[in-house]
Amino acid sequence: MLDGSxxxxxRSERVGWPANWNPPGLPKLWTYxxxxxxxxxxxxxxxxxxxxxxxxxxxxxxxxxxxxxxxPISLRLMNWCGxxxxxxxxxxxxxxxxxxxxxxxxxQQADWLESHIETHLMGNHLxxxxxxxxxVGACFAGPHAARxxxxxxxxxxxxxxxxxxxxxxxxxxxxMYHSRLVYLLAxxxxxxxxxxxxxxxxxxxxxxxxxxMLSHPDGQLALLNDxxxxxxxxxxxxxxxxxxxxxxxxxxFALPDSGYFGACTDDNHYIVCDAGLLGPDYQPGxxxxxxxxxxxxxxxxxxxxxxxxxxxxxxxxxxxxxxTRAHNTVEVDGQDQAEFWDVFRVARRGKIRQAEFxxxxxxxxxxxxxxxxxxxxxxxxxxxxxxxWNRGILEVKDTxxxxxxxxxxxxxxxxxxxxxxxxxxxxxxxxxxxxxxxVCFHGPGQLSxxxxxxxxxxxxxxxxxxxxxxxxxxxxxxxxxxxxxxx
Length: 487
Prior knowledge:
By secondary structure, the chain is α+β, with helices and mostly antiparallel strands. Helix content is 32%, strand content 30%. The chain has helices at 28-36, 45-58, 70-87, 89-93, 96-114, 123-139, 143-163, 175-189, 194-207, 210-213, 235-242, 315-322, 372-377, and strands at residues 5-8, 11-14, 251-255, 260-264, 270-274, 294-298, 301-304, 330-332, 338-341, 345-349, 352-360, 363-370, 381-389, 393-413, 419-423, 427-432, 435-442, 446-454, 462-486. Helix 3 runs parallel beside helix 6. The protein starts with a strand and ends with a strand.
């Protein structure tokens, strides 16, 4: 950073030191990250002060409008308060000129945020707005601070009731945003205000263990819905701060409100299945067409995975990552399970009709169905049965029930480190870091290998392959596959 190089979303750019706060030609989300000030924690007091002072001088409302959008204001306020009022508290107390400049800017930003709450977006944006107002209000005295605090606290109470599901998951069903939720609650709990503690203690107790359930044995998140690696804190970092274990819970697990079911074994096999809603009906922007998809690690190594997050730098890759064809589920007639419109918009969409989970001594069974294709064009109902054995065997049976002739493709997206050793008419044998595994198909259809993409984080698109089992049917068909691990 001191050389003027900043790296966000997998992209490094030289923007100078102090930074050019409105760099030309860069994606808006990249510039957003520049104004979050998450990186402030890496600087010493002198450099942090230099950057803060330069921002105050050059980022007036009329000169850099993006800096004054409510979401970056929220994150910046929480970072400034954390760094200057906790980490560098003693230095700031003896620096009257700097503290006066900082206090004045924080007050201006908090007032602006308070009058521009993101009720039009809701979701995680609104939660960040609430947390920022409560944080800033807790750091100051006086009528303005009291108003920020009370408004933030009221909004925080309302949004935590809405956004933290009964099973502890975040209601946007993204492991990445759940990770941010846990961090945010931990940060709020660290302020030391009893009124904040009263609100966050319950949601934090429910949500802190969910992050481990939605992480692979390598500690990295499952890439379900809009999720990416390296954006927010990994499970081990947050749970270490909280003083709880980050290890995957051994045995079957169920998050029925979030719609995620799976298991982790002593041998570091891990599976998570998606049998939940796309997302909140009024805010489905972070949802993907991944109903009845799954991710699988064998021996601690990812083997079968989803495509991961979206890429703001490319509209076509954003469309691909949200599509049903990018996930380990069944695509019918080349359609998605929902109508994805532009960025963050979803029109007609299907829902899970049932989800029955049965933990067993040797694994679990899960049966679920969705009506996405029926909603779109009177297409078939998709029913999928998972049967998992802890020794590393997964059996999946698919049933499609419709009223006319349809085409289908069932895909399994392979981790880029997987390589195909043998391809036969109805089975594939693959090699990966954890050994080998085979996938055997049954039912009427043809087996092939397709080129695909693995997008584990923003700005990152890695070529990989997908196993595709495709065919045609009239009214009803049953088919499926079995994954068998061989260490």
